[in-house]
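Protein in question kept underneath.
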Amino acid sequence: MIAPWIRDWRGRYWGAAPAILAPENTAEVEAIVIRAGELGVPLVPQGGNTSMVGGATPPADGSALILSLRRMKRIRELSLEDNKVVAEAGVILDDLHAAADAAGRRFPLSLGARGSATVGGLVSTNAGGTQVLRFGTMRRLVAGIEAVLPNGQVYHGLSALKKDNRGYDFNQLLIGGEGTLGVVTAATLELVPAVTDRCVAWVGMSSPEEALRLLRVFEAETTQVESFEIVPEDSLSLVLKHIPGTRNPLSRLHPWNVLIEACATSPIAESPRTVMERVLAAGFDDGLFDDAAIATSEAQANDFWRIRESLSEAEKARGPATQHDISVAINLMPKFMVEAAAELAARFPGTEASAFGHLGDGNVHFHVRAPVGADPAKWYAEQAPLVTAYVHDLVVASGGSISAEHGIGQMKREELERLGPPARLSMLSAIKRAMDPAQLFNPGKLVPDWTYNDQANS
């Protein structure tokens, strides 16, 4: 049944495709790409179809075929000596975690869609998640790539060389390319030591400025903090209302909250709980927060994380909203979160704006919820584009990015063209033209339309 694969996860974008092609190995991908090139048939690479920006949805005119990598799910190699794993594009993140765990290692990237997101999609979107604070995005975790290029050639880049000075870094070109420059078929990924102990805390406070100061206290005291997620009161309230079985970790609601996880990777390292208690005690003495709860069991730790991972689901249950995955300089983020939300509420009466996410990375998910009772179709058609443009204007005015980790896809393509620095747009255009002159790889995504309009008029 093709229906689930022609729409995006949020139900905002619908496409059409006459068929899904599901190769089992790289040779079959190569054959498909060569034949598609001969016939002039566009291809839309797809993994778990969890894109938040319509990046894996086929065009509405039915001109493209979906190229599903889900059958390519082998873990080809896992080396404890090199701390590397070679995983094919269709390997689901949860399965990758399990394979690494069984070998006494871990792959240090996690996100809410880990049960469906695939390696190929994670690479192609330069995925981030909740552990970027310590380990970085996929750009830091990918040591090599295998991909089929638009001309049908296979790029053999899986060798995890520490030094390779043969010119441009093609691995990095494909990471974050959203399938517009090549079909990723496998990747060599970095592994790190397994967690021997962890501690999770939920902290309530008055402002995001206090949250950032608390993060700096942790950074001065320890390298064990892997996640530092900020959650406003209104987002927490939506979870408590719409997600069964959730409860407030603290005795009352606070204007802002942070979820903190500290991990040890050696049995002789200082206990994460000891670290957490020591730093939180110092933070409380300095007046940086009002209350805190430290999880006393794995079940309670998972309950804390369930709140964070249910934020999008709870918001979806509340009604229509525009979601903006943005970044600004970390030192500017607390002020931006408060002032931008106030400006949005004033500019669009009845809306509710709030931000949550990866404060320590300078990346938050800035969401604007429609007025209660608004007709979804009418609001998305008439108000949502205005809201999004206003948010993006505020972000660019602060020197930030309109896409921190979700990519551009089709949702943000026009905004990238409107706001993107000319030099960046010119380089995107030149690279796309050089590598995919027929525009057959994931058409309508990432690169502005004028890339090919200019070519046609030249």
